[in-house]
Task: structure prediction
Amino acid sequence: MSTLELHVDVDVPVDRAWETLHRVENYPRFVQGVRGARTEAGGRAHLEVETGGPAREVEAEVTDRGEHVMEWLTTSAPELTGSFSVQPIDKNHTRIQARLEYDPATVRDTFGGPRGFAQTNAIERLVRSDLEHFKEYVEGG
Result:
């Protein structure tokens, strides 16, 4: 398994960042490749993901752990786990910490793309881009 940790600082209060991140329905607005998303009963999320090939349905279990920590685990291929931690910097600024654990071979087999180091770099660029898009989205109101 590979682990990726990145963060972005946003110019909004912690509660606003948390509420925005916690609404799965918002994900198509800032997560590249997500074409549709909805929350389902029992702390589950359903995502329609398109990454250069045919659209795939991805199911995940989403759990709140402590104050402003959300963990998720896919229940369908590819096997991914991760978390978002939302931490106040001060009254009007917040840090979003993203953590993703994945098996590069499984991600490559599911979505295609490069192998090895090139794939790790591609995933890092994608997550960094998604965090920047989240920043633009949440700060834009």
